[in-house]
Hints:
Layout: E1 3-7, H1 13-23, E2 27-28, H2 37-49, E3 54-61, E4 79-84, E5 87-99, H3 101-107, E6 118-129, H4 136-144, E7 156-158, H5 162-168, H6 178-182
Parallel strand pairs: 1-4
Antiparallel strand pairs: 1-7, 2-3, 3-6, 4-5, 5-6
Amino acid sequence: xxxxxxxxxxxxxxxxxxxxxxxxxxxxxxxxxxxQQRSRDQLQVLKAMFPEGEARFWGLMGKKHDPxxxxxxxxxxxxxxFVQRRGIVLGAVIAAVFHSREFADRLWPVYGPAGxxxxxxxxxTSIRAFEDSCSAAEICERIIGHPKRRHFQGCxxxxxxxxxxxxxxxxxxxxxxxxxxxxxx
Length: 185
């Protein structure tokens, strides 16, 4: 398991809107209309995983568009943190990872100025908001050990520092039973 850093750039209004709509707030699963059979099957599995009918999501581009964090490096059970310059604003555990351009299109219809599509969907659980986090620069310096870095430029996997993140920014571990369900995605 690792800590995955998802930067949410304050200057990018689309990124902030996407974060607020799908990670910062739950999405009603009944509001997601998909046509392809594979996407419908994925939605049914998510409904079983989230019986309350709501889930939170984040997306990643395909490796052609963003090679910094290949989707194969994002695993169920990883802790993830959404970080802005002011610091970590949200922590979660990754409950599912799957590829569905159609599903991603329903969650994030606008991709921003570059127009690059998100293709991979990450379902989140064990959500925790962090109000008074240290700054991104302090996280880079004190926790990760990179004193010259001031922010995160893209999604990043931080394996060797997970215990330090968990101590300072605790999120509950994912329910181990979800691993068997996730394989169906």
